[in-house]
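Reopening: Helicase associated domain protein still failing for me.
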Amino acid sequence: MARPKSSDPNAEWNTLFQLAKAFYIQHNHLLIANDFLCDGHRLGRWIGTQRQNYRKGNNPFFTKERIELLESIGMIWNVKEAAWQEMWNELARYKQLHGTSRVPQSYVTPEGKHLGIWLNRQRVQQKRGTLLPRRKELLDQLDVVWNPEQQRKENWNSNYRLLKQYVNDHDGAFPPMNDAPTDGIRLGQWLSNQRNHYKNGTLSVSRQNKLSMLGFFWDGVTQHWELRYRQAQSYFIEHGHLCLFLQRDGTSPKELGNWLSQQRIAYQKGALSPQQVHRLENIGMIWDVRTYLWDQMYQEAVAFYRKHGHLLVSKTSGMSENSRLGQWLSTQRAEYRSRKNPLFTQDRIQKLEAIGMVWDALVDSKLLWESWYNKAKDFFEDNGHLCPPKGPLRTWILAQRGAKRGKRGNISADQIQLLEDIGMIWEPEEEQWQAMYRRAVDYFKMHNMLNIPCSYLTPDGARLGQWLAAQRKGYRNFLAGRHGGGRNAITPRHIELLNQIGMIWDGDTITCHTSRQEKTILYYLKSICPDAEKVSRWQSPGFELDIYIPSLLTAIEYDGVVWHRDKLDKDEEKGRLCRKHGIRFIRVREPGLSPVQTCDLSIQLSGVEDACLEKAIREIVSYLNLPCPDINIARDSADIYRTYRDYSSRKWDQVYESVYSHYTQFGNLSFRKNRFNSNGVDLANWINTQRDAYRNDELTPLQVQKLEKVGMVWNPFESQWKARFRMAEEYHRTFGNLFIPATYHTQDGVALGSWLAKQREQYRKGKLEPRRIHLLEGLGVIWSFRQDHINQDQRLSTHTNWYRFYDAALVFYNDKGHLKIPAQYVTSAGLKLGGWLAEQRSRYRDGKLNESCIQLLESIKIEWNVFSDRWDEMFALAEDYARKNNGLWVSSKYVTPEGIRLGNWVAQQRSKLHAKGRRSPLTPEQKHRLDEIGMVWDPNAAKWMFKYHLAKSFYLQNGHLHIPVDYVTESGEKLGMWLNSQRQALRGNPNYLMTEERKRLLDEIGMEWNLKRTSHTVKQKTGQKKDGNDK
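Support: Ran it again with your exact input. Result attached.
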């Protein structure tokens, strides 16, 4: 309750001043709400009264002394100006911190100030012409960008940089939807918007590529799998294994151990794809943990045996650093004696005995050494050397070599002498390794990579391909910590030398683009007819054939649905080409393809299973009167891929070797017509084929690199155009323009004038590339000599009716600084300028206004859409709503706290998109901007997909959809009732919609359409099975 006023106005004023001063000392400002009370005094209203007295200046009691007193305690007379200045200071701090004033519209300062929205308001005021010049000067000092479209592009790039930094800081992980803001940006929500743009087809290819380069996947389930896989991969690289159960110090990534366990369970159920299995195995995934642990301890035993020559290890902790191994060996001896453990198989017994396992631990180690020595001596006397095959004796020999080098236990001088007497060679592999390495260096000098198939032989007959495969195997052993001997042994020095010549450690990266079915048919036919091959355009007969057998003049094509669905005419054309060249032609076609007529034999598959393909291959062999091989695709799968990889990679390299030889001799790739290599390949045709493959993105990066190494020019015509453009640049530097006569020739005889005339002709026909237009316009090219230009010192010389109105618009713009003219506006000369401008906007929207008129009007800042400001204001409100609510899923009846009908506006945008609105339709730019803030164009479909994902999540966790009708998720969604409504929709209930696509999606997650109502006990069991993980 306010106190009564004092009879002395000065006393009252002084009292309130002291209160204001105390408030200022405590809070360092006087920005007080109007209804603020202090000790019963209306201090807020009093402060407002002082500001009002200051502005009006008509209160005789409001003296200069009082003004000075108030200013001494920080009185701000213009609150709005102070607030503006405070936001400007925030913008200045943002620029100092981030190096730019391009603030995302959703950015909020750490103090909660909406700096992005404030800056957007300044742009709107600038566009309307209501921004004070002084304020614009202050904002220009901070390099504010006034063009919102440029700002949006910068916002995307800024968000992308933040995301890239986030991914780098979090070991490849992407932010979740509910992640805390990063520099004021909710990256999780932003990423979700990008997925929506991608699904709607509104995300540009360049932005897709940028996100994909970070490892981003457009499917959320795949993204989660990839995230965990990268964590597992990093863990494997750091620790050399994926046995998180061996590391209990809490340093392993959160939830990684559970995820690996889930993968093992999925593997046992057959729920992992072959690619996922392969990738996990590449990083050391252990599917059977118990077997793995036994093998790990066995490897420790092997290492101990090689070092010490025996397995007599103490199991007492503190007496031996290998007490854990001693305990394990003791357990193995106990298992051997009891024979009760079914896992202790005969294979394990043999493995342990192969490394000198003595089941009775009391046997003397010297007697044991002599026993093995006698075995070695017997082998030497029988074979003349001491290189036994893999087995217990070889293991013992390798242990002695390690002991001799002082790395694996002890060996006496007498024992060394005894072994040397029977032909012991301590280091036999190094000399052979260096010889093969020199051959690999020679190959690398020519091909710039060691992409050598396993079957490759050097000119002197050395099996270089097999040797490199052995190095890869040795490298995998090295990474896994298996440092045993043998031909696959490799040292860090060897690895370093091979890395210097581009060693490919993963042999699976040598591949090519051919269907699995083609590879399979070629594999079996090649086993009967060694000359069977895949023919490219640069080979005889001059067109592509999947498989060609020259000795039989027979071609086979495999037609898949994906590539041949709409290619019947081309398929028939290839048949006619084969007949023209006298080639017998066979086609194998997948189900769903139309029959072909122009072929000698057409085999229509009844299915895509391996059995159908095997039957087709037998039919081909029978038709050709050839002996039928043993066909089993599942069994031969690995050989099929390896054989094709070796064949295809070597085939390309054989032609490249001819090209490389020509280049080293002549320094160019100019081949005379009909120049063939030793294998009959037309080299000029092959070069042109590589250019086509390059344009179609069919060459590997290595092939591109190798061709560019020998001076390959991918687009000869582009090179010629660039040469002519450089001549035009030189002409422009000399004469200051491009007014080149059509008959002009350069000193070198180049018809530059004719070339420029051709560019103008292509421009008029709309055939000139935008990039070339940009380059030529940079030199000031004039596309039409009838084109007129205007600058500040020159008027149009042609006073047509259009230009008379344009002159009037120009005068108005110079006078007012804008063209916001009512439609009824008439100039002093009687020109209906308002109506004329409205007509220009209409012609612009209809695409009937020519480019020169558009450029002239835009030079005086015409606004083509006069309603855009209103739209931008509503969009800013929608963007603020989307930021606060993680999307734009808003009711059509929603009204903002300020009373603005935002929900109705959002609904109007949906109507405009579907051309249902009475006003102008939604522009592509407006749709793009709404997509970026999570616009839901079809709320009903979005709600359906939301419920579907809940059902899918339940199915993935529980393996079924046996959900009672009254089942409700933890988030409160009535999932059981929704599933029941889908069954009703399928039965024809008009209250629900069921499409073929929706049915397909539900079928994929095991929907049972005739499921009876389940009891509450089922619901309880289902809830127990979920174990709280159904969030």
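Residues 716-779 form one domain. If you still see a failure, please send the error message rather than a screenshot.
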